[in-house]
Design brief:
The complex is a heterotetramer of chains A (325), B (461), C (134) and D (405).
Chain B (H helix, E strand, L loop, with lengths): L24 H6 L36 H19 L2 E4 L4 E6 L4 E6 L10 E8 L5 E9 L1 H9 L3 E6 L15 E3 L2 H8 L7 H12 L3 E4 L20 H21 L21 H7 L25 E4 L15 E7 L8 H10 L31 H6 L7 H5 L20 H7 L3 E8 L2 E10 L8
Parallel strand pairs in B: 2-6, 10-11
Antiparallel strand pairs in B: 2-3, 3-5, 4-5, 6-7, 8-9, 9-10, 11-12
Chain C lengths: L6 H10 L4 H14 L3 E8 L4 E7 L7 E7 L4 E2 H10 L21 E7 L5 E8 L7
Parallel strand pairs in C: 3-5
Antiparallel strand pairs in C: 1-2, 2-3, 5-6
Helix pairs in contact in C: 1-2
Chain D lengths: L15 H14 L7 E3 L5 H8 L6 E3 L3 E6 L4 E4 L2 H9 L5 E2 L8 H9 L8 H37 L24 H20 L9 E4 H11 L2 E4 L9 H11 L20 H14 L3 E4 L7 E4 L10 E9 L2 H6 L12 H13 L3 E9 L20 E9 L8
Parallel strand pairs in D: 3-7, 10-11
Antiparallel strand pairs in D: 1-2, 3-4, 4-6, 5-6, 8-9, 9-10, 11-12
Helix pairs in contact in D: 5-6, 7-8, 7-9
The chains are: A alpha+beta (325), B alpha+beta (461), C alpha+beta (134), D alpha+beta (405).
């Protein structure tokens, strides 16, 4: 955590802190020992819930901690999208075009290599075909849209009754259509849907970045911790973190956190920790029974974390089954 | 056994991971978060020996771990980060396009490709400017915020944000319909619209990734197709009237006889009557504590509740027609676990009130006898038929009956269709009306199923 | 109750702390007769309004402490810390001058939780962060 | 008192045949679900004629058990061994205060004294199993550490990575590990030996200090519905009347008021835990369930189909009182547990604990009559129980990945 590294921008929207850049995720995990929760669908592995991808959503405790130690700042994400200027959009479009062209060139050489006959296609023919496809595309797109509407109340007679088949083969798309006059075959090319906004030229967070919880609170984008119980959670979280533990969500194991002796990628948690917001917050013996009982089956102890808001201090009691009785 | 130390690449294996993800959810969600072996996702060439899932160590050796421990950890992290770096790419021949209209919280699908649209999006008439300057109504395909985000983040839709900029004149931008959006921007702008919270989106995406069809329960606009008479349930008006009549008649009757019930001596077995001298009668005569969901007294309830059914969920196997959705397989409430405790009895009752009754669980193996002595219907008994509710003395037990069962001894309540009785434990554990609650605590989702218990209908004696 | 063999030992505590007498009685009997601890003594825990039990498992040397409570009580974190503070290996019943120093308090105690059907369960509470045994 | 019966759940004991014999024995011993017996007269002509008329000569046999109300433990003690036996065997009422279920303390002590006592009580079986389990865990941990050490060595010298294994041929698994050679078993035996030696030295004659303890709910159920239990006052001077018991059991559950109010009725309130628990207990008993404490699984009750010796409990009950009028909750002197909805974390915890042991969690909601609706006077008699109501909500985890077809 050298001082020359820039603070990590946490993208805040709807009072949730997201991390979209993988380098930031790596820094947060490897340097700051915070895990967050990956919550997005992994492209190409989109039919499962076991491995998930960006964005990483931080627990509010984690975000508050990172801001507290100066490792991160809070960015009002919706406010960072400025209206792009025409030149910005042109540059963006040109970039897309370049990518398409590169792919096309690459593919053409590949096709050429494969097609030993090497039948050349004149530029003129290519252009004509392109135009044909253009027309086809427009029709197909309209048709596909109509079909996708699928039997909207047919009061509107603009479209013919729908057909179940939806996969309309279409050969082009809006971005490609702008490739007027390019050396491009009708081979498919790859479109990238960007995850992070930081590469967008018109994404500018300079006027909506907050370095403290307080300033972010004033700006109305962040308000954690606000209550005693949230302060207690933050206090406990930070205290455990300072002692070198990693934390994960513990709601399924009867606490606020799971506490790991090292990175959860490699180590089992030792504790489920529950936060008691004050020394006098009520604690029912049944809770001790349940926590102790749950622990015996999962090889975890339970950690009662008593927060003292006056002293800003945490005390701990560890709970385990006694082994008799 | 050799670790090639090859740097894992971001390429994906062509292994059947996509189809056959390790989806043992029970074990999975028992599994602690982050306890995944990302090295599994590496292409085979880069794959060193792969420890079995869940084979984590107890703790790092003092000082952060041994060299080996640090090495293995680094490798796991690298694999994870490399996987996360994979970009969303899609062929130009498969991609769909949409335009996000923040003013109406909808994304207009301009190019629809792929199977997703057979159960996502709905058609809405919108006025469009014709070329001659006149406006006319035109139906178009629109996505709700959660549908749009989901399709964008899985890399199926490229989304533009509607813009007032004039692009048409510009070379190279003729077909651009607005400003291009990232996944990040979709999360940022679309969540918070049309009642969508991050929790609801997470639950939506979770179910979609498993292949479920998920629709809104309350139509967000008048064009949104919903299943027919979903919120019926309860009983038909006629049944209601019969019940009321019956109840009032019974209560008059009971008032005439009731003083005979001695609360100081609730059970009095006749020394002479035959049917009294059995444990069955003894137990029956003790069943006078009011019970069951129909007896719920009015509970003075408070303010607003987060417990409203939000999603209708259809199994992947359920035939689904977008324009005429069938009754859902499950109905789901999504709450933020940090702000909402579990539902109160009143909240549960309000949910149960609008839910249909689930059919009795069918016995695992045993088929019903082909010819029953009584004139039972040939179909397995479902609780949906009001006829059964009316005819079964057990099901339709008034408060009066519950309180003074001894009045009814003349007609001992024989269990209906004993041959068909499913395993009572299955019926008890499954319950009548079912609601699913997804409680999301900072991205950790727990799904719980709450159902109406009917222990009174399934006595053990 | 009066005729029970434990009554003479427990009666001062039963009289002094009627609300916790049920759990003390059950825990004491279980420890003496079912768990068969030896060198069993009852200690006074005024800040927790109850008696606690000190003893050893048969054949071991370590002094153990059990603090009874009933399922229907409501405790809190400060209460548990007080219990630790007041339990000392040596003559605990003598005046406690520096109850707040945990120096001499035991590293762990057993919470003996009782219910009205005479069920009892024991859970071990340890001060600080003590990782689970293997 | 020899109440000892073979333990059905003792693992590793006997095959199917033995189990069958045991079940047969159990069916005989525990044939009656309630302490009352219906004694059939020998078949006779008169009997069959009366039978046609719907009348019978069957005799109801009431065992007339006796217990003592103990205000300290808020329970009823049954000290006569015969009565304890009847109440346990006919409906599984009560619990030995020094045992896990039926009173077996004396039998255990006798067993220890008679060296080589072969038949283990369930408590002894449990103790042995726990010792073995502990040893297994120690063995496994040691083996894992050894393999890790080896892997470390290889990494340091050869640069090869062997992922630290938690299982494998060198590491014992629960399926393969055998306690025979373990030190723990020996240790456990040594402890038992010592236990045997101890009492022998001082030659003290064994006196049974155990009793069958009935909860107030159990006692009231037996005496109110079945009239098969007499409860003596704490000083054992007289048998308490039903009215006396009704008031005493209610006030036993309330914090003692000092000085005692002049009129005992003044303390009555609808949210008395005795009334709430009784409504629940009675409801499930009347449906034929055997209702036992669930403290070990952090719930209020467990429901057994016939009784704990036959099957495991599959249903775990948590009693959730609901005030019809929230204002009554605000003004109450009692802080009833579970009267407000749980946090998700707590619900997950108790659900997880119970699903680990194959139990389904049932939330039992009991409504507490509103004072504005029902006059307090009804609390003077059990008639008030007609104003409470009981209903169940079943909680289970929902696993979307498993519900797809």
């Amino acid at each position: 955590m050298s001082s020359d590294t820039l603070p990590i921008p946490l993208r805040v929207s709807n009072k949730t802190a997201y991390v979209w850049d993988v380098d930031d995720i790596a820094t947060i995990r490897s340097q700051h020992r915070l895990c967050g929760v990956l919550t997005g669908t992994l492209p190409h592995l989109s039919q499962q819930n076991v491995f998930l991808g960006v964005p990483l959503i931080l627990f509010p405790e984690e975000a508050a901690l990172l801001v507290d130690i100066g490792a991160a700042v809070l960015v009002d994400d919706p406010a960072a999208y400025k209206q792009p200027t025409v030149p910005q959009l042109e540059r963006w479009s040109a970039e897309q075009q370049e990518s398409v062209n590169t792919q096309a060139t690459y593919n053409e050489t590949k096709v050429a290599k494969e097609n030993q006959s090497g039948r050349a296609i004149s530029e003129e023919a290519l252009r004509k075909r392109k135009e044909r496809e253009e027309r086809k595309r427009t029709q197909a797109a309209a048709k596909a849209a109509a079909e996708a509407l699928e039997g909207g109340t047919s009061a509107d007679a603009l479209f013919a009754p729908t057909e179940p088949q939806l996969q309309t083969p279409s050969v082009s798309d809006p971005t490609s259509s702008s490739a007027e006059g390019s050396k491009k075959s009708n081979l498919p090319y790859t479109i990238v849907i960007p995850a992070s906004s930081s590469s967008l030229e018109w994404y500018d967070a300079s006027d909506c970045t907050y370095a403290t919880i307080e300033s972010a609170r004033k700006a109305g984008i962040w308000d954690y911790p606000a209550t005693l119980s949230e302060r207690a959670r933050c206090g406990v979280f930070k205290d455990l973190w300072k002692q070198g533990y990693f934390m994960g969500g513990g709601i399924k194991f009867g606490g606020e956190y799971l506490v790991y002796p090292g990175d959860p990628l490699r180590y089992h948690s030792h504790f489920a920790a529950s936060v008691l917001e004050s020394p006098l917050a009520s604690l029912h013996p049944m809770e001790i029974v349940a926590h102790g009982r749950l622990g015996t089956a999962t090889k975890k102890a339970h950690l009662l974390c008593g927060w003292d808001d006056d002293k800003q201090e945490v005390s701990y009691l560890s709970v385990e089954w006694a082994g008799f009785g | 056994m050799d670790d090639s130390l090859e740097k894992p690449s971001s390429l994906f294996p062509k292994t059947p991971l996509t189809d056959e993800a390790p989806e043992d959810d029970e074990q999975l969600s028992d599994e602690e978060d982050g306890g995944l072996d990302w090295t599994k996702l590496l292409p085979p060439s880069a794959r060193p020996i792969i420890p079995r899932r869940g084979e984590k160590e107890f703790e790092p050796r003092s000082g952060g771990g041994t060299n080996l421990q640090l090495h293995v950890l680094d490798r796991s992290r690298l694999a994870m980060f490399d996987t996360l770096r994979a970009t969303r790419t899609i062929s130009s021949k498969a991609v769909s396009y949409a335009v996000w209209h923040p003013d109406i919280s909808r994304s207009h699908v301009t190019v629809a490709r792929g199977i997703h649209f057979s159960n996502m999006g709905h058609s809405a008439p919108r006025s469009v400017q014709g070329e001659d300057g006149t406006s006319k109504m035109q139906r178009r395909l629109e996505l709700l915020p959660e549908e749009a985000i989901y399709l964008i983040e899985r890399g199926s839709v490229f989304c533009w944000k509607k813009s007032d900029l004039e692009f048409g004149e510009l070379p190279g931008l003729s077909d651009v319909s607005g400003t291009p959006m990232t996944v990040q921007q979709a999360f940022s702008e679309m969540i918070g619209k049309e009642d969508l919270t991050i929790e609801k989106f997470q639950v939506y995406a979770y179910l979609k990734r498993l292949g479920y069809v998920v629709t809104r329960t309350d139509p967000p606009d008048s064009y949104y197709p919903i299943p027919p008479n979903l919120s019926v349930s309860k009983t038909t008006p006629i049944m209601q009237r019969i019940k009321t009549l019956f109840a009032s008649w019974m209560s008059t009757l009971v008032q005439a006889v009731a003083p005979a019930f001695n609360w100081w001596k609730p059970v009095s077995l006749s020394h002479w009557l035959h049917h009294d001298k059995k444990y069955l009668s003894l137990f029956q005569s003790m069943r006078f504590i009011p019970s069951g969901h129909s007896t719920l007294p009015t509970i003075q309830s408070n303010v607003t509740t987060p417990y409203r059914i939000f999603y209708n969920v259809y199994k992947p196997s359920t035939p689904f027609k977008k324009s005429a959705p069938p009754p859902p397989d499950f109905q789901l409430v999504v709450v933020n676990a940090r702000t909402a405790p579990m539902p109160s009895l009143q909240e549960l009752s309000d949910l149960f009130d609008i839910l249909p009754e689930a059919p009795l669980p069918t016995p695992r193996q045993r088929r019903p006898p082909t010819c029953a002595a009584n004139n039972a219907p040939a179909t397995p008994p479902t609780r949906e038929t009001p006829a059964r509710i009316a005819s079964s003395p057990l099901a339709e037990k008034s408060l009066v009956r519950r309180m003074f069962p001894w009045l009814f001894f003349a007609t001992p309540p024989a269990p209906p269709m004993p041959a068909r009785r499913p395993n009572p434990f299955m019926a008890l554990k499954s319950g009548k009306k079912i609601v699913i609650v997804a409680a999301v605590d900072s991205s950790n989702t727990s799904f719980f199923r709450f159902s109406q218990g009917e222990f009174t209908e399934w006595p053990m004696v | 109750m009066e005729s029970h063999p434990s009554f003479p030992v427990l009666s001062p505590f039963i009289a002094k702390y009627p609300r916790s007498s049920s759990s003390l009685f059950q825990a004491y009997n279980d420890i003496v007769y079912a768990q068969q601890w030896v060198d069993v003594e009852v200690l006074d825990l005024p800040s927790c309004s109850r008696g606690a039990i000190k003893g050893k498992k048969r054949g071991t040397e370590e002094t153990l402490f059990a603090v009874p409570c009933s399922l229907s009580e409501t405790l809190n974190f400060a209460w548990l810390q007080d219990a630790f503070a007041q339990l000392r290996p040596q003559n605990v019943t003598e005046t406690i001058t520096d109850a707040k120093t945990t120096r001499s308090s035991p590293p762990s105690l057993y919470l003996a939780i009782t219910s009205q059907d005479a069920s009892i369960v024991y859970y071990k509470l340890s001060q600080g962060i003590v990782k689970p045994s293997v | 008192m020899s109440l000892i019966t073979p333990n059905t759940r003792a693992r590793g004991g006997g095959g199917a045949q033995k189990g069958g014999v045991r079940r047969y024995e159990h069916n005989k011993i525990y044939a009656h679900p309630l302490p009352l017996l219906f004694v059939e007269p020998p078949p006779s002509r008169i009997g069959s004629v009366l039978g046609l008329l719907g009348l019978s000569l069957t005799r109801i046999e009431n065992p007339h058990c006796e217990g003592v109300f103990d205000p300290t433990t808020r329970s009823v003690w049954v000290t006569r061994p015969d009565d304890a036996l009847i109440l346990w065997r006919r409906g599984f009422f009560g619990k030995g205060d020094l045992s896990r279920s039926e009173p077996s303390w004396l039998a255990r002590q006798t067993n220890i004294r008679a060296s080589g006592g072969k038949q283990l009580t369930s408590e002894e079986v449990t103790a042995r199993r726990r010792a073995e389990r502990r040893q297994f865990k120690l063995d496994r941990a040691a083996a894992i550490a050894a393999v890790a050490e080896e892997a470390e060595e290889i990494f340091a010298t050869e640069g090869r990575v062997i992922a630290p294994a938690l299982s494998g041929p060198a590491i014992p698994s629960a399926a393969t590990w055998r306690p025979s050679q373990s030190a723990a078993a020996a240790e456990a035996e040594a402890a038992e030996d010592e236990g045997r030696d101890g009492p022998l030295e001082d030659e003290a004659p064994l006196v049974d200090v155990e009793h069958l303890q009935l909860t107030l709910q159990e006692a009231f159920f037996l005496l109110w519905n079945l009239d098969c239990l007499t409860v003596l006052d704490p000083q054992q001077t007289h048998a308490m009347s039903l009215k006396e018991i009704w008031l005493t059991f209610q006030s036993a559950e309330l914090p003692p008021t000092i000085p005692a109010p002049p009129n005992p009725f003044d303390t009555l309130q609808f949210d008395n835990p005795f009334l709430i628990n009784y409504a629940v207990y009675h409801h499930y008993r009347s449906l034929g369930w055997v209702v036992k404490s669930g403290i070990k699984f952090c719930v209020d009750y467990l429901l057994y189909k016939r009784g704990p010796v036959f099957t495991h409990a599959e249903l775990a009950l948590v009693v959730c009182p609901v005030y019809e009028d929230p204002a009554d909750q605000q003004s109450s002197s009692i802080a009833l547990q579970n009267a407000t909805p749980f946090t998700w974390s707590w619900l997950s915890t108790i659900n997880r604990v119970n699903s680990q042991v194959q139990k389904t969690l049932i939330l039992v909601y009991v409504t507490i009559p509103a004072r504005s609706r029902v006059p307090l006077d009804v609390l003077r008699s059990p008639a008030c129980l007609g104003h409470y109501s009981v209903r169940e909500v079943i909680v289970r985890r929902f696993i979307p990945a498993r519900m797809r077809d």
